[in-house]
Design brief:
Structural class: alpha/beta
CATH architecture of the largest domain: 2-Layer Sandwich
Distance between the termini: 133 Å
Number of domains: 2
Radius of gyration: 32 Å
CATH superfamily of the largest domain: OmpA-like domain
CATH topology of the largest domain: 60s Ribosomal Protein L30, Chain: A
Order of helices and strands: HHHEHEEHEHEEEH
Number of helices: 7
Largest sheet: 5 strands, mixed
Length: about 270
Amino acid sequence: MDKTRPIIIVKKKTAHGGHHGGAWKVAYADFVTAMMALFIVLWLLNTSKPVREAVAGYFKDPAGVGNKSGTSHASAGKMLVISKDNVAELKEKLDKQIQEKFDKLKNQIVITITNEGLRIELLETKSGTFFDLGSKEPNENGKKLLVLIAQELGKVPNKVSLEGHTDSKPYSTKGAYSNWELSADRANAARRIMQQNGLRGNQVSQVRGFSDQQLRDPKHPFDPSNRRISIVVHFLEGKDNVAPLPGTVPEGVSPDSAAKSAPAVNSEVPTQK
């Protein structure tokens, strides 16, 4: 009996898909991706500088965390310093927002451009507009307006000072408390609210109370418009009026100069004599 097993040869045919299977698709996808990247680069090279900075900013902070926290990364561009050349833009923006949200009080809010910077004045009336009569704390109208202003001024690196003014009518209560204390207390109350709602700690350079020594209407010293809070956004002078956001460098200011900007005056101001 022949115990030799027959040899069985199995031939397998390898099936080639159309055009070598799907490998060509991968290569084609890589080619299309490379071409799309090339076209995007060419497009960016021909766009304006603001568009390029906006695109770069997105890739550096796609989640927008820097903007939400009120800060930006150290490499994420520059801040615009308010100067005599562009201060009108800030004035126009504030005027528009005040007209939209405080239309009934717009006559009591005066914004002017002066030699020292942008001056925002909140004027009182006989019945009181932003502070109740004799009160050192702002009322609801005053708080809402101060919050709005703080949110806008917190976006610029310029230093800000706050002033309190009264008319010449003596403070009603007896004792040591006078218009000096009242003007200083109102300015500090405004500072506290603004620093809690957008104004940075290193942004306030001065808080002062002038009593009735700088009347808005000297011919009528008892006029209610003499009672006011003045907020001054100072122009850049010798790099001293810059309070940059953490991790940013204002346009036209070197990192060393920005780091040396003066600290804020956060404590209560002493009563003027």
